[in-house]
């Protein structure tokens, strides 16, 4: 495949005082009608890996969907050629959730895990019990040059009641739809669960509820570098959908969830003090307005404490006003706030939708996000303090 370089765009980011945006994925390019659901990680070597769903025939969620990626070796200024990580033939492979395991002594160079879901019917039909979502991962020990064979972990992290398809899928919980976090997963870097791989997710259970309350967020995690997985407790808030999580203390987790019940139109925030196994509190956060959309979180340790970063479309009505916030107190207050993208006057549609973030050095965050009615997935660098 001919090597592609990014087109650097003059954009609102220049006016906001940070780097130019670079287009990473553009609808219609490289054989895909649309690209959606961005995720981004940094390898141990410092290279960036931008991941997305490559939708072959159309922009819809269901159909012939692959998982594709590009690599940048210069902090997102230029990107290499499009590469394919997962192809589930004519069916769907999506919801990419990557994480770099930096703490497995067997792989000192770091091992990338890429969790994803497959599906054999539209989400609405799966929600009715007419179809199946499964959970898989592949891994790479050479920064994406090659990938392992897919591992099906559905029986460990999902609870479908479909024994006719697989005898192991006989669960009384009757989970139907299933989705990993859209965006990166994380690894505990300290505390009693140091090394734990942690992946936020959500599912629907039982018959569909017209108010969206059959949805519920949860997580799954591994304490043995991907050999086995366990489920967390469900988030105790009916309607919690797409979720993202980060470490905020040696044994504490912060989870930010989309509210599919739509009232209130804010992020639903949950905190755990036992490594993300159960939840000590769940609440609607009025400081995080949200138009029923995806968001992303990220954390890093500074001294003895964690800095938490949160990004979402901070608008109760539209997928717009993409805003990055930083907190020193586990997301209770925000000491830094930066608008990343805002639609021009008179704009109609989703100007800035799904996003993901990555820490680069001490004073920069990379933002990968869907822009301009899902036409492009772009990257920009944001200086932080």
Automatic annotation (TrEMBL):
GO CC list: cytoplasm; membrane
Signal peptide: 1-21
Pfam families on file: BNR_2
Sialidase domain span: 46-349
Transmembrane feature ranges: none
GO biological process: ganglioside catabolic process; oligosaccharide catabolic process
Enzyme class: hydrolase
InterPro entries listed in its UniProt record: Sialidase, Sialidase_fam, Sialidase_sf
Protein name per Swiss-Prot or TrEMBL: exo-alpha-sialidase
Source organism phylogeny: Bacteria, Pseudomonadati, Bacteroidota, Sphingobacteriia, Sphingobacteriales
């Amino acid at each position: 495949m001919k090597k592609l370089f990014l087109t650097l765009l003059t954009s609102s980011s220049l006016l906001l005082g940070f780097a130019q945006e670079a287009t990473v994925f553009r609808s219609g390019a490289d054989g895909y009608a649309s690209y959606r659901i961005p995720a981004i990680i940094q390898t141990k070597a410092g290279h960036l890996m931008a991941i997305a769903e490559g939708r072959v025939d159309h922009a819809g969620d269901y159909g012939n969907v692959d998982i594709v990626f590009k690599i940048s070796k210069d902090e997102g200024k230029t990107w290499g050629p499009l590469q394919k990580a997962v192809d589930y033939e004519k069916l769907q492979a999506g919801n990419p959730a990557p994480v770099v395991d930096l703490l497995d002594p067997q792989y000192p160079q770091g091992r990338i895990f890429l969790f994803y879901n497959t599906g054999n019917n539209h989400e609405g039909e799966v929600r009715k019990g007419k179809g199946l979502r499964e959970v898989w991962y592949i891994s790479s020990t050479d920064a994406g040059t090659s990938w392992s064979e897919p591992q099906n972990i559905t029986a460990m992290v999902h609870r479908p009641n479909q024994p006719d398809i697989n005898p192991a899928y006989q669960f009384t919980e009757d989970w139907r739809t299933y989705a990993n976090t859209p965006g990166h997963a994380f690894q505990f870097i300290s505390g009693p669960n140091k090394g734990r791989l942690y992946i936020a997710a959500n599912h629907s259970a039982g018959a569909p509820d017209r108010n969206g309350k059959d949805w519920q967020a949860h997580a799954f995690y591994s304490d043995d570098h991907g050999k086995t997985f366990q489920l967390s407790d469900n988030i105790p808030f009916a309607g919690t959908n797409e979720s993202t999580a980060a470490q905020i203390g040696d044994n504490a987790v912060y989870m930010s969830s989309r509210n599919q019940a739509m009232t209130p139109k804010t992020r639903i925030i949950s905190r755990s003090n036992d490594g993300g196994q159960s939840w000590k509190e769940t609440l609607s956060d009025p400081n995080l307005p949200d138009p029923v959309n995806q968001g992303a979180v990220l954390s890093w340790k500074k001294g003895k404490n964690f800095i938490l970063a949160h990004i979402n479309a901070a608008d109760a009505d539209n997928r717009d006003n993409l805003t990055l916030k930083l907190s020193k107190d586990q997301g209770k207050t925000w000491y830094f706030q930066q608008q990343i993208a805002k639609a021009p006057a008179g704009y109609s549609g989703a100007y800035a939708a799904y996003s993901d973030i990555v820490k680069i050095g001490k004073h920069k965050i990379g933002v990968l996000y869907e822009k301009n009615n899902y036409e492009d997935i772009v990257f920009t660098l944001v200086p932080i303090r």
